Amino acid sequence: MPLAIVVTGGQRNDGAMLEQVLDDIRVPRIAGGRPRTRPNAVLADKAYGSGVNRRLLRARGIRAVIPEKSDQITARKRKGRKGGRPPAFDAGAYKDRNVVERSFALIKQWRGIATRYDKLAITYRAGAVLHACLTWAALLGDMP
To answer: How far, in Å, CA of 88 to CA of 62, rounded?
Structure first.
């Protein structure tokens, strides 16, 4: 389910916006108190596997379930012992990333979002937020 929506420029790298997305996440607690802002883990594809993103997640105490890029593997192995060890990767947890991809496929069923005909980022984001609201409403249904 969508927790935060950040709109970037058309040619902008998604991996560069990870910090802003993490800053926007707020999950309210059922018993009250401060909302939860730190996920247990981030499941992402190789585009988010940069050292900057891994350091950001490590500093926040978030487990990174991101496969290593092939060029990073080659560069690390070329350095030999000085290349360090590979980052931890949980292949079992990574299998759950298909849920994220299916969520993107679902939101792209809306033609205006899939094609991005909107000229203004604010109207594009409004459509994405509206879709997120409808998705959450369908999940919650008749809950009190």
So the answer is: 13
Question: What are the extents of the domains in the chain?
Answer: 14-140
Measured distance CA(4)–CA(142) in Å, rounded: 23
End-to-end C-alpha distance for the chain, whole angstroms: 19
Are 38 and 62 within 8 A, CB to CB? Answer: yes
Q: How far is CA 31 from CA 8, 35, 119, in A?
A: 35, 10, 42
Task: With residue 64 as reference, give the H or E element that holds it.
Answer: strand 63-65
Distance CA 105, CA 115 (A): 13
pTM, 2 dp: 0.75
pLDDT band at 144 (very low <50, low <70, confident <90, very high): low
Q: How many other CB atoms are there within 10 angstroms of residue 39's CB atom? A: 15
Tokens 């997640």 found at: 57
pLDDT band with cut points at 50, 70 and 90 for residue 143 = low
